[in-house]
């Protein structure tokens, strides 16, 4: 059996692929690097892409301050490609940026979010109202932009996180948790889950073979959250539990993972 690549390395490869806008399969030449090295490379790529055109982004940001917010938002959506808008948001005053977010269309916001590095503008992300974050979160999930969502999770406020988590089903939650930049927020997500979301999550792990994603989630949940998952697992359909047992027998589910859900 081929050795499984560590989950954090797989996650970092996906994030690097997103930063470079290439399929993850194109990164075979760096696939043997550690997660830490891949993370450092991703940060260097992000820095290089941003710094290359910083003066242009700064000029656009300065221009946006010279007109009313409603006008700036209309002009932005009409003439600025999402990439330029994303980079400009990273140098805007947070409250000015949040005001514009409230005036832009859902589709355009999603395009901007895909191209934005949330870590470069945490104050901007934190200033966006929870209900608007939830709208963006729903659209990004529809587009299956897991890496993008995982980057934003680290910077949204607690109310915005709650509003976003409420939009997701079990499969989406597993895929997002796998690529969350700040793993300390995985337990925050765990506290927000409904029983139905947990049931969906367990069923999705079985039906989509998201075993690595499930293990990453469990690895970062507090014991009381794991106990709650175990209680829901005990009530899962026999077919779901059979898939878990088969995955453990095949080696797809690591030894001990199933024990955490049945002890």
Total number of helices: 18
Largest sheet: none
- What overall geometry do the principal axes of the alpha carbons give? globular
Number of separate strands: 0
**Quaternary assembly:** single chain
Distance between the termini: 28 Å
Question: Which class best fits the helix and strand makeup?
Answer: mainly alpha
Helix percent reads over 70%
Q: Strand percentage, roughly? A: under 5%
Rg over alpha carbons: 20 Å
SSE order: HHHHHHHHHHHHHHHHHH
Mean pLDDT: 86
- pLDDT below 50 for ≥5 consecutive residues: which ranges? none
Features:
263 residues, mainly alpha, 0% strand
Topology:
Layout: H1 7-20, H2 35-52, H3 54-64, H4 69-79, H5 82-89, H6 94-101, H7 106-115, H8 122-127, H9 130-142, H10 146-153, H11 158-165, H12 170-178, H13 184-192, H14 195-207, H15 211-219, H16 223-234, H17 238-250, H18 257-262
Helix pairs in contact: 1-2, 3-5, 4-6, 5-7, 7-9, 9-11, 10-12, 12-14, 12-15, 14-17
Describe the structure.
The chain has 263 residues and is an all-alpha fold. It has a domain at 171-263. The protein has helices at 7-20, 35-52, 54-64, 69-79, 82-89, 94-101, 106-115, 122-127, 130-142, 146-153, 158-165, 170-178, 184-192, 195-207, 211-219, 223-234, 238-250, 257-262. The mean pLDDT is 86.
């Amino acid at each position: 059996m081929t050795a499984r690549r560590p989950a954090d390395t797989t996650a970092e490869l996906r994030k690097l692929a997103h930063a470079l806008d290439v399929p993850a399969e194109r990164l075979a030449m760096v696939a043997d690097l550690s997660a830490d090295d891949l993370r450092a490379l991703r940060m260097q790529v992000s820095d290089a892409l941003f710094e290359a055109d910083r003066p242009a982004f700064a000029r656009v940001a300065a221009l946006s301050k010279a007109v009313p917010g409603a006008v700036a938002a209309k002009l932005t959506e009409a003439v600025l490609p999402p990439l330029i808008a994303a980079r400009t948001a990273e140098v805007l005053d947070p409250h000015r940026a949040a005001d514009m977010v409230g005036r832009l269309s859902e589709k355009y916001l999603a395009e901007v979010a895909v191209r934005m590095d949330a870590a470069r503008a945490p104050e901007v992300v934190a200033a966006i109202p929870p209900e608007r974050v939830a709208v963006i979160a729903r659209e990004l999930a529809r587009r299956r932009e897991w890496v993008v969502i995982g980057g934003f999770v680290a910077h949204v406020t607690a109310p915005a996180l709650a509003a976003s988590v409420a939009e997701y089903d079990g499969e989406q939650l597993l895929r997002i948790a796998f690529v969350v930049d700040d793993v300390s927020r995985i337990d925050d997500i765990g506290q927000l889950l409904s029983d139905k979301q947990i049931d969906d999550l367990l069923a999705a792990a079985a039906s989509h073979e998201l075993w690595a994603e499930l293990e990453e989630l469990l690895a970062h949940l507090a014991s009381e959250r794991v106990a709650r998952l175990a209680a829901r697992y005990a009530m899962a359909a026999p077919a779901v539990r059979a898939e878990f047992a088969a995955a453990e027998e095949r080696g797809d589910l690591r030894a001990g993972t199933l024990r955490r859900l049945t002890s």
